[in-house]
Design a protein that fits this description.
Layout lengths: L8 E4 L6 H16 L6 E6 L4 H15 L3 E7 L2 H10 L4 E5 L8 E7 L8 H11 L2 H6 L10 E3 L4 H9 L12 E5 L8 H8 L3 E5 L17 H10 L4 E5 L6 E5 L7 H14 L7 E5 L4 H8 L4 E5 L3 H11 L3 E3 L5 E3 L8 H15 L3 H5 L7 E7 L12 H10 L3 E6 L5 E7 L3 H19 L2
Parallel strand pairs: 2-3, 2-4, 3-6, 7-8, 7-9, 11-12
Antiparallel strand pairs: 1-5, 4-5, 9-10, 13-14, 15-17, 16-17
């Protein structure tokens, strides 16, 4: 596809993501959603980037031009848009955000009427309409058929109530000292409200967005800043969100950043112990550490892997009937409470897990020690299909005999081959990575 990437349409605002692109993309999306329309309403949210004003206005113009009514809800986490799209009975939802990217980027992602991210086939259908001049021209509404837009400022309350209901009613956060880094992003209002109303002793960082400071030296991309504050303030735990709050990074009371797979594993065990884990199975990606499998095997919990990307995790969850999954990057999906990764839900469940354990956070999350991993991005001149590379199957078999897990995949946007080796012997993994790099350098640069 020319427009859509792994998570919607994303790029430099004003260059790739222009007002013209946003308006035409909105028209195409409106035409697509019209096929199954029930309410003739589309929900529109955004994060705190300055370029969101330009893109929001263009999307409203595009949707109303093809006859859709729009409900603008302003700065709101991506998972809130997913939830509210279904809760408010809209035909679809649109989120304007570039997630963890710097402020100068922006993006557009779509949700269906059920609050689920659109799949590849739906994105391809919208893209086909986008490039079809005749279809775009024929869809223009006239007179009273032109849509209307309305700004709604109080829907955040629905999301807050929904989030609070995900926290066990028998527990309270009273007495728990929590530091939140809201990344000057979309959760800057909701997260402090939820934690305060549940009784936490709360310290909030980076909650003054100005359109240009989203993700800037803060939030999930820079948890080391949160770590310093957790230590300084003698907090019990710290939570860092990214710009649109679909990711979470946890810091324990010692200022140690909790590995994403350790977080997933401990939460999975907590859900299982409380009979909240469906099918004794969770979904992670091919990037997840084998230590996660070994830890959960003790509880007879199966780990199934998907392609990298939270939407692929969700697809696999639907396919298998699992209700919990995630990526080590911090996208964690609690299927009983959210339709996509929700950093705020994850933070509350991590808090409940901590309180229920009676342990310090450092002790709780130390239950999983990820095995050493070595990552490398190898520059290449050609992307030959991996299954056609002579000797690769033999190389992988030899590494497997040594107890080394492998993952080799091409970058979707650059001439890079991403290499991952993982094993219990760190020195052996490092040595074998050099051999693997030499192998692929010869195979793909001749």
């Amino acid at each position: 596809m020319k427009l859509f990437g792994t998570d919607g349409v994303r790029g430099l605002a004003g260059e790739k993501i222009t007002a013209e692109l946003a308006m035409r993309l909105a028209m195409a999306a409106g035409i697509y959603f019209r096929k199954n329309s029930l309410t003739n309403v589309i929900l529109l949210g955004k994060d705190t980037r300055k370029s969101g004003y330009m893109i929001e206005t263009a999307i409203v113009a595009g949707l109303t031009a093809v006859g859709y009514n729009v409900r603008q809800i302003g700065p709101m986490p991506t998972p809130a848009v997913a939830f509210l799209t279904e809760d408010m009975r809209c035909d679809g939802g649109i989120m304007i955000s570039a997630s963890h990217n710097p402020y100068w980027d922006n993006g557009i992602k779509f949700f269906d009427a059920s609050g689920d991210k659109l799949g590849v086939e739906a994105e391809q259908a919208i893209e086909d309409i986008y490039f079809n001049d005749e279809m775009i021209a024929a869809a223009q509404s006239k007179g009273l058929e032109i849509g209307a837009a309305k700004r709604i400022d109080d829907v955040i309350g629905r999301y807050i109530v929904h989030i609070k209901n995900s926290f066990p009613h028998a527990l309270t956060l009273k007495g728990l000292r929590v530091v939140l880094d809201v990344a000057n992003g979309a959760v800057y209002k909701a997260a402090p409200t939820v934690f305060s109303e549940l009784g936490a002793e709360l310290i909030v960082l980076n909650d003054e967005p100005d359109g240009g400071n989203i993700n800037e030296n803060c939030g999930a991309l820079h948890p080391e800043n949160l770590a310093r504050e957790v230590i300084r303030l003698r907090a019990d735990i710290g939570f860092a969100f990214d710009g649109d709050a679909d990711r979470l990074v946890v810091v324990d009371e010692k200022g140690q950043i909790v590995h994403g797979d350790a977080l997933i594993g401990v939460l999975a065990a907590y859900l299982d112990a409380n009979k909240m884990l469906a099918k004794k199975e969770i979904i992670t990606t091919v990037m997840s550490n084998a230590a996660l499998d070994d830890f959960l095997a003790k509880s007879k919990i199966k780990v199934t892997r998907s392609a990298v990307g939270d939407k692929f995790v969700l697809e696999k969850m639907k396919e298998t009937g699992a209700n919990f999954g995630g990526e080590q990057s911090g996208h964690i999906i609690f299927g009983d409470f959210a339709k996509t990764g929700d950093g705020l839900v994850s933070a509350l469940q991590a808090s409940a897990c901590l309180l229920s354990s009676g342990k310090k956070a450092s002790e709780l999350f130390a239950a999983i020690r990820p095995y050493p991993q070595k990552l490398s991005n190898l520059k290449i001149t050609q992307k030959k299909p991996l299954d056609e590379i002579k000797g690769l199957a033999q190389l992988e078999a030899e590494l497997k005999k040594l107890g080394i897990r492998t993952l080799f995949r091409y970058s979707g946007t650059e001439n890079l081959l991403r290499l991952l080796l993982e094993g219990k012997d760190e020195a052996l993994v490092a040595a074998k990575m050099k051999e693997v790099e030499k192998f692929f350098t010869k195979a793909l640069n001749e």
